[in-house]
Write a structure and sequence with these properties.
299 residues, alpha/beta, Rossmann fold, four-stranded parallel β-sheet, 6 strands, 9% strand, globular, binds 3'-phosphate-adenosine-5'-phosphate sulfate
Length: 299
C-alpha cells in the first residue's frame, strides 16, 4: 500500500485531559511505561512543542554523533528509528519506550513533545542533557495546522480559523504553546544542562547554531564538518532524503500536506488575516507578559 492509502486505515482520535494537558489515548494508555522510563546519564533529550524543528535538530545531532559511523544508518534507518519518540505508542508500530530501550548507541538521542512537568523524572535525576527547540507561535500554529490535516491519527483540525482559536486556547495536543515554551525556559534557570534554541536562529544561520550546540555538548568539530552538517540538514536536502522526510510513516497523508512543508520563518503571513493577527497579538501579549522569553516572527 502507498503511504497515503495506509493513512486512510487509521482513524482520528479525541483529545483527553491528562493532568491538565490535552493528550491522546495512545499516550495516556501507556503512561506508566513512559513515566517510569529509565534515562541514562549520557542520554540526550530533544524536547519541543510539536512542529518547532524537532526533526531538524534530531538529524543534526544524529550526524554530529553518528555521521561517520555507518553509512547503513544514514541510508536505511529513518530518523524516527534513530531518535525514538518517547511517548509514541501508535498501533502497528513499536512504542517509543521500546525503541529507546533497544537503542544500542551512546549517547541515545530521544525525542519528546511532553511539557516540562510531564518529562519522566529520571531524565532530571540523571542530569541528562536536554536540547529544547522553540519556534515563534504564529509559524508554529500554521505548521501544526497543516500537520494535523495530514496526520490521520491527530484530532480533526477543522478549518484554519477554528484551529487558530484552539491553538490560542491551548486545546491542541500537548496543550498551550505558551506554557510549553515558558516551562522549559523557566526550567533552564535552575537546570543548567538545558540548551534552549530557536527555529528562527537556525534558519538565519544554521552553522552558528550547530557551533553553539557543539559547545553545549562538549564536541569539537572542524569547520568542514560543521559545513557538511549544515548542508546535509538543509531543508531541501532533508525533503529529498527518505530517511528524514517521514515518507515511510504510514499515518501521514502527503497528498494533503508534506511533512517537510516549507521550513520558513514568516509563512504565518500567508495564513493570518489582519483581524486574526490583531486578535492573536493582543492575546499573545497577555499570555507572555511576565516572561523574558522573546521570539522573532520574521528574520
Ligand atoms: S514534529 O512532527 O513535531 O516532529 O515536527 P518538527 O520536526 O518539529 O517540525 C516540522 C517543521 O520543521 C520544518 N523543518 C525544517 N525547516 C527548515 N529546515 C529544515 N532542515 C527543516 N526540517 C524540518 C518542517 O518543514 C516543518 O515546518 P513547516 O513550517 O510546516 O514547513
Amino acid at each position: 500500500m502507498e503511504g497515503s492509502d495506509k493513512a486512510l486505515s487509521y482513524s482520528r482520535v479525541e483529545l483527553i485531559d491528562f493532568e491538565g494537558v490535552p493528550l491522546v489515548h495512545f499516550i495516556t494508555d501507556s503512561w506508566e511505561n513512559i513515566k517510569n522510563f529509565q534515562a541514562r546519564p549520557d542520554d540526550i533529550l530533544i524536547a519541543t512543542y510539536p512542529k518547532a524543528g524537532t526533526t531538524w535538530v534530531s538529524y543534526i545531532l544524529d550526524l554530529l554523533y553518528f555521521g561517520n559511523t555507518s553509512s547503513e544508518r544514514q541510508t536505511s534507518l529513518p530518523i524516527y528509528l534513530r531518535v525514538p519518540f518517547l511517548e509514541a505508542n501508535i498501533p502497528k508500530m513499536p512504542s517509543g519506550v521500546e525503541l529507546a530501550d533497544k537503542l544500542s548507541t551512546t549517547p541515545r538521542l530521544i525525542k519528546t513533545h511532553l511539557p516540562v512537568q510531564l518529562v519522566p523524572k529520571s531524565f532530571w535525576e540523571q542530569n541528562c542533557r536536554v536540547v529544547y527547540v522553540a519556534r515563534n507561535a504564529k509559524d508554529n500554529a500554521v505548521s501544526y495546522y497543516h500537520f494535523d490535516r495530514m496526520n490521520m491519527i491527530a484530532p480533526e483540525p477543522g478549518d484554519w480559523n477554528t484551529y487558530l482559536q484552539r491553538f490560542m486556547d491551548g486545546r491542541t495536543m500537548y496543550g498551550p504553546w505558551y506554557d510549553h515554551v515558558r516551562g522549559y525556559w523557566e526550567k533552564k534557570q535552575t537546570y543548567t544542562n538545558l540548551h534552549y534554541m530557536f527555529f528562527e536562529d537556525m534558519v538565519e544561520d544554521t552553522g552558528r547554531e550547530v557551533e553553539h550546540l557543539c559547545s553545549f555538548l562538549g564536541l569539537s568539530t572542524s569547520t568542514e564538518e560543521r559545513k557538511r552538517i549544515t548542508k546535509g540538514t538543509h531543508f531541501d536536502a532533508m525533503k529529498q532524503n527518505n530517511m528524514t522526510n517521514y515518507s515511510t510513516v504510514p499515518v501521514m497523508d502527503f497528498k494533503i500536506s508534506p511533512f517537510m512543508r516549507k521550513g520558513k520563518v514568516g509563512d504565518w503571513k500567508n495564513h493570518f488575516t489582519v483581524a486574526q493577527n490583531e486578535q492573536f497579538d493582543k492575546h499573545y501579549k497577555q499570555k507572555m507578559k511576565s516572561t523574558t522569553l522573546q521570539f522573532r516572527t520574521q528574520i
